[in-house]
Amino acid sequence: MLFSSVQSNLDDLTDLAEQLSSEEYNAPCPELGGATIGQHFRHIIEIFLCLINNYETGSINYDKRERNRKIETDITTAVEHIDHIKENLEKENKPLFLEQTLNCTKLRIQSSYFREVLYNLEHTIHHQALMRVGIRKFDRLILSESFGVAPSTIEYRKKCAQ
């Protein structure tokens, strides 16, 4: 269930990418504090890549991601990376350590692969919600109903509709 939810979510990102022109992907959005849609794509992609690429070591530090400008400026590159994530995400659960520095203090917190996949999904949904705000001016775009909406909100809406 977890991996199929992530796959579906990543498919939604690919669907959006394929509808955007390069100019739209790279245009600063005032609604997003001047960030571009491409920058949000890069951020999402690199968080997943950080998890996948560090699975074997068992130690994840999302602050040490690549920050590849080509992902944020080139739609084809972004979609290729999304495809790579979809092909390599499903792995066995195992203990992991999350590392981060806060206020000059290094933290090392125990986690698990499935927990971090779930975190990445929630993180992606959050960024999709932001992107939805930035792209609503493009009337021609078709987004899934779930794009940028938390699964709990979708379930709540279903219950209210009954």
Automatic annotation (TrEMBL):
InterPro entries (UniProt xref): DinB, DinB/YfiT-like
Q: Which SUPFAM superfamilies match?
A: DinB/YfiT-like putative metalloenzymes
Coiled-coil annotated spans: none
Tell me the GO molecular function terms: metal ion binding
Signal peptide coordinates: none
Q: Which UniProt keywords apply?
A: Metal-binding
Tell me which residues bind a divalent metal cation: 43, 123, 127
Q: Which family does it belong to?
A: Belongs to the DinB family.
**Protein's name in the database:** DinB family protein
Organism whose genome encodes this protein: Sinomicrobium weinanense
Taxonomy of the source species? Bacteria, Pseudomonadati, Bacteroidota, Flavobacteriia, Flavobacteriales
